[in-house]
Amino acid sequence: MAHNNTAFQQLLQPLSRHGFERLAKQHHTGQTLRSATRWDQFIGMAMSQLSGRQSLRDIESNLKAQQDKLYHLGAKPIPRSTLARINEKQPSELYKAVFYKLLRQCQKAPSKHKFRFKNPLYSLDASAINLSIKLFPWALHQPPAANVKLSVGLNHGNMLPEFVALSDGNENDRIQGRKFDFPAGSIVAFDKGYNDYEWFKELSNQKVNFVTRLRLKSVYEVLEDFPVIDSKGIISDQTIQFNSTHALKRGVPKLRLVTYYDNEGDKTYQFLTNNFKLCAATIASIYKDRWQVELFFKAIKQNLKIHAFVGVSRNAVMTQIWIAMITYLLLAYARHSAKTGWTVQRILRVIQLNLFERKNLREILIPDPPRHKKEVPQMRLSF
Question: Which of 159, 150, 106, 158 is nearest to 292 (CA)?
Answer without folding.
Answer: 159
